[in-house]
Fold:
Amino acid sequence: MSMPYYVAPEQVMKDRAEYAQKGIARGRSLVASLYAEGVVLVAENPSRTLHKISEIYDRIAFAGVGKYNEYDQLRVAGIRHADSKGFAYSREDVDARSLANLYAQHLGNVFTHEMKPLEVEILVAELGTTVRPTQLFHIAYEGTITDEDRFAVLGGDAEPIREQLAEAYVDGWDLVAATRAIVASLAGPERTLGPDELEAAVLADGNGRRTFRRIEPDELAALLAD
Amino acid sequence: MGLPLFDATDDPGPSFLSLIEREGAPTGNGLAAAEVTQAHATTVLALRFADGVLMAGDRRATSGVSIAHRSMEKVFPADRHSAVAIAGSAGMAVEMVRLFQVQLEHYEKVEGAALSLEGKANQLAQMVRAHLPMAMQGFTVVPLFCGFDQTRQTGRIFDYDAAGGHYEEFDFQTTGSGGRDARQTIKLGYRDDLTRQEALELAALALYEAAEADAATGGPDLVRGIYPIIATVTADGYERVDDQEVAALYETVIERRRERRGDAGGTLR
Structure:
């Protein structure tokens, strides 16, 4: 009869965390920041069709980095949750906080109970109203949830980006300034990123009920051009 | 309400209808029609013009012989490039529109692209068909659907029956108890190349005629300032015509009718 090896729980968690971090670090980073009219989200993403940033509801956006199939499944679950809730109650009852909590619980459960943790880091952004502030909820692979009040950086290589952006960040900056600073921080000191390697979107009022809007490559090029 | 995650083999896909079916949405089956007095919504129309398609509806809802609502809305945006209008049992119809709107937006968000106009028309047909048991009990819902087809760059109109059959109409269609009168008016004034203004005038007149002949269709309510709802769907999307613009259309009609003591005086507008 074979005896199962004893592995200390600390070791199990450490191994899983390392596994998830490695998976996430393979992908490119993403930044979301508040600006004068709402929230701007920019990701390094060469694909035109496999989006990292998408619409969940009237005032809620979703962003994910890491393994595409895993965060895309979470994105669809988020849309389903929001649409069902809005249909059963009312559109204004759909909020980012409860959705972020559900995501955090799910990621936490998978991290502790499943064979393999999800190799993703996700963000739920909500454009504020008169009763709710604009919020960014950052959820890590093990279910840790943090709410950021200025900007959030997702991805394996987040630290240098965060440092650079913290220096550049100005309260209430406009879309041009915010986008340029974000793109510069994503690129780092040695690279430059063109509009073809980026995906961007905003949550901003002024276009009716649905506030999510993709910034198409042409518009992005114009924003980045001097 | 938990996080709705499914296995790949068991996934409801981009359909909001199959999603809420799984979550056990309440249905109203089992009510006897005779026990309930329902409000019936009444004349709605759609007609094509040069830039796209126009949809209009009166504002009256009736319950038996009394007026239940004077300011009911029967024309709704289905999504950015389509509109839906309803006739029939008001409560059911409004609920169907709400579900239809969520269904289209849900599909668009999950799939990352909007349904084709024909796909949308088909979805609505399935919803009307699913409603058939209720229609048999007297809660009929008959929608009218129109939109701007972005692949063909033209406005298109779809007409439904209570069993969920849907038929594409080329130039115009009406439905509801005053639909016949409205249709006759449009038929006399219709041309292929109507401008937006001409189409608005024709639609306003058709509803005016329907209200003259049909007790369950409301005309312009000058006392309360309630006017029919008119909306256009063009390449730029759904746009509701401003109440003041509609009021101006009716001022012209009413002025001419007053001069002629009721008839149109040889003009079709």
